[in-house]
Amino acid sequence: MAAVLDRALTIVPNDVVTKTTRALVDFYWKAETRPLHETIDSILGTNPSAISDAADAWFLCALAQRDPKAAERALVALGDNPSWNDSALNLNRSFGEGLVARMVKDEAGAHAAFTKARLEQEKIVQAQPDYGPPLCVLGLIDAALGRKEEALREGRRAIELLPVEKDPTDGSQMLVYFAMIAAWAGEKDTALQYLAANGQSAGGYYVATYGALKLLPFWDPLRGDPRFEQIVESLAPKDAASLTK
């Protein structure tokens, strides 16, 4: 992917989406935030009107670097677009506001933002009652609100609705996000079980890459647990030089 994007940039060196996507490769593959940060700074410095096309990556970078001011600016640039896109899963802007409030330990602000996010997500679930991803997102929001039993039930139901056997890619995604739900709900053993299960499935998603697990606050509840650290280390790039030849 890195090699293909490098070739693309020789043709369209100033394309914002291509530049950002190339920087994201290093983020997810090597857990490096510097290329993405520098890319965002370059866009803001030379073509600020185009930052909306990279705002989701900007928000991701700000989360990884624990930079609430940058995260708030990225959310403004996002407008009404989702704060996080991961194939079939979309986390709305209110969810992103909740993450930023958590970052600055504003519990009241976080609760208000996640409550708003829940109201918005409930409508989506009601419109698609038999589709796993929206229910999985609702479970994550409930976990953020401390609604433990509802969160775990919704996450498990999402896996039932979209199992790996039916859809290896999005089904794997349900396992990863259920692991996140369980982590947020304080169920570490369950979280680690499902996170490990994703590694044995056919589809792996961005949120379970080396960079995401190592850098993003989603996984903070598991940090320091030797089992989690072992999973993270197992995904570390072994020989970057040989892989890019």
Task: Report on this structure.
The protein has helices at 2-11, 16-30, 34-46, 55-64, 68-78, 93-103, 107-127, 132-144, 148-161, 168-184, 188-199, 210-215, 226-234, 240-243; strands spanning 84-86, 89-91. With 245 residues, the protein is mainly alpha-helical. The chain folds into two domains: 1-81; 105-237, Serine Threonine Protein Phosphatase 5, Tetratricopeptide repeat. Strands 1-2 form a two-stranded antiparallel ribbon. α1 runs antiparallel to α2 and α6 (93-103) packs antiparallel against α7 (107-127). The longest helix is centred in the middle third of the chain and has 21 residues, at 107-127.
List keywords for this structure.
2 domains, Serine Threonine Protein Phosphatase 5, Tetratricopeptide repeat, 68% helix, mainly alpha, 245 residues, 14 helices
Q: Which range does the strand content fall in?
A: under 5%
The rough form would be described as globular
Number of contiguous helices: 14
Rg calculated over all Cα atoms: 18 Å
Span between N and C termini? 12 Å
By CATH, the topology of the largest domain is: Serine Threonine Protein Phosphatase 5, Tetratricopeptide repeat
Give the class-level CATH name of the largest domain.
Answer: Mainly Alpha
Helix content: 55-70%
CATH-derived architecture of the largest domain: Alpha Horseshoe
The number of E-state strands comes to 2
Q: How many distinct domains? A: 2
The secondary-structure class comes to mainly alpha
| pLDDT averaged residue by residue | 92
Main sheet?
Answer: 2 strands, antiparallel
* Uncertain residue ranges: 241-245
**What strand order characterises the main sheet?**
1-2
The helix-strand sequence is: HHHHHEEHHHHHHHHH
